[in-house]
Amino acid sequence: MLDILYKRRSVRRFTTQEVEEEKIDRILEAGLLAPSSKSKYPCEFIVCDQSELNLKLSESKPGGASFLKYAPISIVITGDEEKSDVWIEDTSIAAAYMLLQAEKEDLGATWVQIRGREHNDNSSAEEYIQDLLGIPKNQKILAIIGIGHKDGVKEGRDESFLKREKIHRNHF
Ligand SMILES: Cc1cc2nc3c(=O)[nH]c(=O)nc-3n(C[C@H](O)[C@H](O)[C@H](O)COP(=O)(O)O)c2cc1C
């Protein structure tokens, strides 16, 4: 597990190679296997594999989403606020699991923050995506994960990255 954690980086440049369906499946499996508060399982995943849709998703917010127009796959992660008061935590851990499985598949992936972000002066990024993909209003949107085959090599981390002073024991 630590090998994957050290290797994983946010990758925003992808080749045009199609992403194998079985890899997408295993990434979704990882999301579905994530723990869930009170076993409520409020998460849903919308897989977008059409370039016109990914172009529109890249315009969800002014900054930080533009690379999605080159992503062969975007997965929108939602959580039903009517099912769970902690849908943010549940969707976050599912997203983390999916990022790690993407690395395990040797795919590049990056989290695009949607929750709390604006599309423009009149609408939130969440409203824009709900309208675009027909997502019901109770399905709150945490993030989009853009996925594809890595274009280029991004160095992983090593032990020098670890700020061990952030670790405390028994007392801050
Ligand atoms: C909660 C969260 C929100 C993020 N939002 C974005 C985003 O909107 N766009 C983006 O390109 N990267 C986003 N990232 C990726 C971070 O920029 C990235 O994790 C950080 O620069 C550290 O780099 P690394 O993932 O390669 O270790 C986000 C990451 C997290 C955890």
From TrEMBL:
Alphabetized SUPFAM superfamilies for the sequence: FMN-dependent nitroreductase-like
Taxon lineage: Bacteria, Pseudomonadati, Bacteroidota, Bacteroidia, Marinilabiliales
Organism of this sequence: Marinifilum breve
Pfam families named in the record: Nitroreductase
Signal peptide feature range: none
Positions of the Nitroreductase domain: 6-58, 59-149
Superkingdom per UniProt: Bacteria
A GO MF term: oxidoreductase activity
InterPro entries linked to this entry: Nitroreductase (IPR029479), Nitroreductase-like (IPR000415), Nitroreductase/BluB (IPR050627)
Protein name as it appears in the record: Nitroreductase domain-containing protein
